[in-house]
Specification:
Distance between the termini: 18 Å
Largest sheet: none
CATH architecture: Up-down Bundle
Number of helices: 5
Oligomer: single chain
CATH class: Mainly Alpha
Strand content: under 5%
Number of strands: 0
Helix content: over 70%
Order of helices and strands: HHHHH
């Protein structure tokens, strides 16, 4: 099937686009540490999904899917930090964090399906 066809990978790629757009301008663009951390965490989500899907065993794949879930949680925290620092508004924080929670749920279901 290929990782490009996984809905969770596509959602992860959309989050990367959103984070790059969000961190391109304004105060968040000038906070180099937070901007860099947010971009790295966002990139890690679809990257680990792709790598995991291409591995030989479900155990290896699930390890990468768990890493992707961890990166989603990391990015949620960084988004909240960005809001608390006044870089983004609460609506943006809520929308992005809800999307990341959805990705985490999708990954959890993928992990459970591969364990069977």
């Amino acid at each position: 099937m290929g990782f490009e066809n996984l809905r969770v990978w596509k959602e992860g790629m959309d989050v990367v686009d959103e984070i790059y757009l969000l961190t391109k301008e304004g105060d968040l663009a000038r906070d180099f540490d937070l901007r860099s951390q947010m971009r790295r965490a966002a990139i890690s989500i679809p990257s680990n999904i792709a790598e995991g899907d291409e591995l030989d065993t479900n155990k290896q794949a699930n390890r990468h899917f768990y890493i992707a879930r961890g990166s989603a949680a990391e990015l949620q925290t960084q988004i909240t930090i960005a809001r608390r620092q006044g870089y983004i508004n609460e609506d943006t924080e809520i929308a992005l964090n809800e999307r990341l929670k959805m990705i985490s749920r999708m990954l959890y279901k993928l992990i459970k399906a591969r364990e069977k």
